[in-house]
């Protein structure tokens, strides 16, 4: 009777699980196109427009295999080699994320100058396409290339709205989205307050950049401590792997389980520390 009851309970649980997964609240698998789109967006935010998601994935595989082979030849341990192979595969994405963060921080410092130049051009009587094209020569060095592409495309097509969409994709920044949409509305609706709106936006951007720089300086130690705390155990493991007794211990099922649990704990702790020390970022809601 107990076995029958357990079997019925198991079947009931499986049935409820299938019903739940078939409903509207079921967890949806993210399609490959969406994952590729997010990676392409990450590469754009990092300024790596010449690299596509497939090339990034190939680089991950190559570095992962290289790290696996090097550690395997050094230690002769498959388990430890697999662990460091995973670390090697994660390195490109980590570097791209750091580049995106650095680029976002650099752009935060120059956006007020961009807005000031636009406000001055509008006050001088230039049209919006001319004001944007002028940034290719008078704007900040880090943003001249996107505005130069905008100027060239607008000269060849004359389609202001389409060129603005391309400019947003090139800038890949929330502040750039707001500026572009402000200019689009001013172009389509009209009005005499564009100069005042741009000057107010420049003031807000300067205040936000100043406050964020102070907070990032104070909380930077949290990120550094998280990286050091995660890297230290694995560096020690790599040093211990040169001893034969350590190699035999981690090649056992218990040693493999310890590595898996340790890796999971390090990952969770690292993500938690980053979340604690992370400042809220602007989201591109006007893409």
TrEMBL record:
GO cellular component terms given for this protein: plasma membrane
Keyword Lipid biosynthesis set for record: no
Keyword tRNA processing: no
Segments traversing the membrane: 6-23, 43-72, 78-96, 220-242, 254-274
Membrane topology: Multi-pass membrane protein
Residue ranges occupied by any Type II secretion system protein GspF domain in the UniProt entry: 116-240
Chief location bin: membrane
Pfam families noted in UniProt: T2SSF
Subcellular location field: Cell membrane
Keywords from the UniProt entry: Cell membrane, Membrane, Transmembrane, Transmembrane helix
Gene3D superfamilies: Type II secretion system (T2SS), domain F (1.20.81.30)
Protein name: Type II secretion system protein F
Protein's organism: Goekera deserti
């Amino acid at each position: 009777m107990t076995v029958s009851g357990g079997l019925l309970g198991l079947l009931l649980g499986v049935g409820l699980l299938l019903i739940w997964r078939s409903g509207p609240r079921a967890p949806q698998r993210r399609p490959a196109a969406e994952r590729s789109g997010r990676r392409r967006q990450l590469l754009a935010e990092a300024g790596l427009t010449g690299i596509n998601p497939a090339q990034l994935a190939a680089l991950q595989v190559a570095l992962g295999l290289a790290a696996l082979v090097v550690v395997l030849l050094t230690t002769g341990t498959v388990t430890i080699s697999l662990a460091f192979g995973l670390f090697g595969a994660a390195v490109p994405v980590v570097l791209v994320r750091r580049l995106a963060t650095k680029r976002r921080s650099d752009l935060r410092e120059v956006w007020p100058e961009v807005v000031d130049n636009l406000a001055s051009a509008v006050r001088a009587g230039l049209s919006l396409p001319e004001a944007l094209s002028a940034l290719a020569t008078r704007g900040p060095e880090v943003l001249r290339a996107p505005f130069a592409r905008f100027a060239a495309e607008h000269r060849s097509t004359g389609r202001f709205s389409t060129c603005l969409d391309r400019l947003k994709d090139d800038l890949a920044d929330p502040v750039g989205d707001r500026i572009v949409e402000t200019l689009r509305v001013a172009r389509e609706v009209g009005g005499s307050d564009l100069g005042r709106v741009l000057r107010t936006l420049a003031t807000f951007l300067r205040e936000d950049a100043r406050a964020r720089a102070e907070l990032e300086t104070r909380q930077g130690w949290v990120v550094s401590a998280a990286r050091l705390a995660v890297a230290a155990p694995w560096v020690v493991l790599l040093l211990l792997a040169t001893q034969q007794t350590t190699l035999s211990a981690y090649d056992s099922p218990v040693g493999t389980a310890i590595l898996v649990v340790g890796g999971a704990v390090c990952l969770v702790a690292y993500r938690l520390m980053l979340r604690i020390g992370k400042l809220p970022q602007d989201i591109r809601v006007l893409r």
